[in-house]
Amino acid sequence: MVGILNRIKQFARSPQGRRATEQARRAAADPRKRAQAQRLLGKLRGRR
Known about the structure:
Helices cover about 90% and strands about 0% of the residues. By secondary structure, it is mainly alpha-helical.
């Protein structure tokens, strides 16, 4: 488990990880994208 966490930390610090983080932040700030994500989560939760 420690190995996985270290790999995640390395990715987050890399330029590619920073870009992915920034894209996620922008998507979370967009009201349309946020609503789309909420609908998707609702569908996934409803299947259980």
